[in-house]
Request: fold
Amino acid sequence: MTTLAELTGQVKQQLMGFTKNQVSITNLTQPMTATDTTFTVDTETVTSISRGLVEIDEELLLVKKYDRTSGVVTVMAGTTGRGYEGTTASAHQSLDIVTSDPPFPIVRIREAINACILATYPDLFTFASYEFPKNAARYEYPLPSDVEGIYKVTADTIGPSKIWFPVQRWRFNNNASLNPTEGSPSGKTIQVMDDIVPGRTIRVVYTKGPNPLVNGDDQFITTGYPERYVDMIMYGTVARMLPALEAARLEQTSIESAERAPLVPTQAASQASQYFWSLYYRRMEEERKRLHVLNEEYTNFLS
Reply:
């Protein structure tokens, strides 16, 4: 199963494959805490980093200086230079990779991954269910707060048949009272008007948006989506991030930038982004159709 860390690596590989950049890296030779203002790296590769931005795991730090002999690197502005650009200062282990001036920081890639996952709703959605007993004196029942839409409603039958028959008359109210004393803490209810035997269980199958990925070892399926969506999310994430390379073309003061300009023409990154968007939307349409074929509503089932 693909994890967030693996998906991040796939996205980075696609992005770096476009630029053909070889980032400058070294590694920690001693662990560091979340409050350390110095850290020690491999003395043979310490010159691979320079004053400015560096990345360790998901944290961005500002480097002030380094010592070639000892490999000790000093963080700029003390702890202010830790957890830079909205990242979180955290502890790191010996042998963790230190990347100088990362073109695509891990934290930004993971933000784009989650933005892409959440943006798939409502074209794609996940399922969940909620059950409650029929009350003879009640027609309206509260629903969980994550309900976005109701896919179908069924009720169990009396006897050994084990068949859940479709409830025909119901209405979803997503603007119910938020007063808990009125029975709707979430502000969402379902009104059931069918004649159902009191005490029987009513099951609501509802749709909701996907869950974001938080930790590197989170498996993709924790989003609620199947594993086959991984390539689609990768395409969408790459498409979101590639246009950032166009901003780099605005800096033409260095010899390298001037030399690369004729080889990498204007709008090259934007055109690559459009290509990945086309792959993303093609996969989105495939999965949207498949989702409705694999999960027929009761109106289709009864016909």
Summary: The radius of gyration is 27 Å. The first helix runs from residue 4 to 19. The chain has three domains: 1-21+109-124+211-303, 23-102, 126-208.
